[in-house]
Amino acid sequence: MRLNRFDPSSINVRGGGGGFPGGMGGGVGCGSIVIALIAALVFGVDPSSMLGGMQGGAPTTQQGDGSEQSVEALCTSNPYATEACNTLQSLDQTWAPVFRQANVPFKQPTLFFYSGQVNSGCGGATSAVGPFYCPADETMYIDTSFYDQLDRQLGARGDFARYYVVAHEYGHHIQKLTGIADAIRSAQSQDPRSANQLQVRMELQADCYAGVWAGKNRNLIEPGDFEEGMTAASAIGDDRLTGGRVSSENFTHGTSAQRMEALRAGIESADDTVCDRYVQVG
């Protein structure tokens, strides 16, 4: 996608936690994200529970000298960070009018770059967890070294695959703003047996929302982008990540086919109401 360069004054970006990789890679040992996801699936829990619970509070990190980096510095720390900031700005600009038209209050999320480990509003996390959204502080957390794993280990290459990751986490922010996330958490606590199934539905809806963003910006889509998105969605399906070692009852994100279908539905429709099919609460 041909995304415009980010405007530092228009996006919410923070960072810290062990410094940043000097180049495009570094950080996490190969395989850690897959190991973390498989572990979560084996025990039948939402991978977000690996963050240490849902405590409130602002994100905190060890910042080295304690200085606060500028948005410009954070977003240009490496090429992946620049892509993520460009994506964030596009997502903000795409979703704000949708909320305005629906007369629903809109609030931009924060994008937090870290390396190695971080303390979020949802608890402590390491890079092994992969990119995640914390509803407690309305922040998306990304260690950009994940993108090297996405490419080298999972075979999901291309800029659109990386944009899809950010757009998916942004989809969870949409769920937070609309109240869907709170409703799902409540339903999960009332019926723990359905917790995994409900989590899958949330993840598929976030995939659909990611597709809606791309669909609303189809004039920016380049040849090969759709295929890159489908490859990424397939690569992170529960069935593919676990290689048949985990029963479908313990899936928390959906199969490769389900994730591809959800992303495709969003892209082709460019209509967020289409994503209602995945989560209906009440």
From TrEMBL:
Residue ranges the record marks as coiled coil: none
Keywords in alphabetical order: Membrane, Transmembrane, Transmembrane helix
Record-linked InterPro entries: Uncharacterised_pept_Zn_put
Protein localization: Membrane
PROSITE patterns: PROKAR_LIPOPROTEIN (PS51257)
Full protein name: Metallopeptidase
Organism: Tsuneonella deserti
Listed transmembrane segments: 20-45
Domain of life: Bacteria
Subcellular location, principal: membrane
UniProt membrane topology term: Single-pass membrane protein
